[in-house]
Amino acid sequence: MSKFQGAILAPIPAFARHLLWKIQDLAKVEFALDAIKEFIDGEKIAIGYGKKLVDLLGIENNQLKAFHPPVGAQRDIPSNEYDLWLWIRSAEIGELVHLQQLLESKLAGLFVLEDVVQCFKYKEGRDLTGYEDGTENPVDKDALNVAVGDMNDAYAVLQIWQHNLNRFHSFTPEEKDLLIGRRLKDNEEIEDAPDSAHVKRTAQESFEPEAFMVRRSMPWSDGCSSGLAFLSFEKNGMNAFESQFKRMLGLEDGVEDGLFRFSVPIKTSYFWIPEV
Ligand code: HEM
Predict the structure, then answer these.
(1) pLDDT tens, 120-168?
(2) Which of 16, 19, 135, 204 has the smallest number of CB atoms closer than 10 Å to its CB?
(3) Where is the Dyp-type peroxidase C-terminal domain (predicted)?
(4) For residue 54, how far is its CA from the centre of ligand 1 (angstroms)?
């Protein structure tokens, strides 16, 4: 029996890696997916297909598209198309090393591993700025309905943000709270925060239609740079993400999200999430 991938609804693990691949041998795509099939449980190893793979496999009625920076964006928003995404998750980095080696050996000559993003849980699930991330996530049945839906048609957005923590720490505690729109000390929302506050930009019920998503973002670091690997799931396409991101960029009202004062997106990719 096929079912949706459990990682979508599971809490974030202590460690995870995003393994991002491109097709190497066009003629052997199905063979490659068969080679890793037995390891994809949707929990420890979750899988997503990029646009090229969806097209090659002839998957019908699919809403996946390639990411393009929104029209009118005043910033450089790099897009990155990958054909395959494997999200490996564990309580230990050592296990991730072994899972990655296993997957690389199975996919050798078939897919090329183009990028690896090493993620970790910070404290009880905070961004590296210290702010709690995920508070307004839908839970239980609501999460299932938002991310997967009745048709099990789930999509993911992976957007890697690189923080400038020096710049972030040049702000006073009050300024930091107003960039986010929540107080660091108790996570309470600040009612009179400016329109640029991140949680005001992204308030899910303030969109028409409402723009709900399930976020499973985690901090990342490569030892030199760091930030947030934003990861969201929604059913039937990328509409919620696109509405929110446009507003974050100021494309609705000229007001840019406070996050841009210390962080920038350096990679954005869309994936369709098959059943397992
Ligand atoms: C540097 C990158 C980002 C950081 C550090 C960040 C951090 C946060 C924090 C601290 C919150 C408040 C707690 C919570 O409800 O989770 C939040 C809320 C939220 N963020 Fe982000 N976020 C980032 C990027 C994004 C992006 C790219 C989107 C979507 C395009 C997004 C969508 C949301 C949504 C939907 C909420 C909940 C809003 C609500 O309904 O109250 N975030 N984020």
Answers:
(1) 999 999 999 999 999 999 999 999 999 999 888 999 999 999 999 999 9
(2) 135
(3) 125-274
(4) 28
Any ligand 1 atom below 6 A from CB of 203? yes
Domains of the chain: 6-273 (3.30.70.3420)
Q: Which of 178, 187, 202, 244 should be mutated for ligand 1, with most atoms under 8 A from CB?
A: 202
Radius of gyration of the chain (CA): 18
Sign (positive/negative) of CA torsion 160, 5, 125, 235? positive
Query: Can you tell me the distance from the alpha carbon of 268 to that of 252, in angstroms, rounded to the nearest whole number?
Result: 21
Q: Is the pLDDT of residue 101 over 80?
A: yes
pLDDT in tens, 47-87: 999 999 999 999 999 999 999 999 999 999 998 899 999 99
Taking 60 as the threshold, does the pLDDT of residue 1 lie above it?
Answer: no
Tell me, what amino acid is at 4? F
- The secondary structure element, H or E, covering residue 114 is strand 111-120
What is the pLDDT, as a whole number, of residue 81? Answer: 93
- Ligand 1 pocket mutation, candidates 155, 200, 201, 230, criterion most atoms within 8 A of CB: 230
Distance CA 239, CA 127 (A): 24
Whether 257 lines ligand 1, by a CB cut-off of 6 Å, is no
List the end-to-end C-alpha distance of the chain, in Å, as a whole number. 8
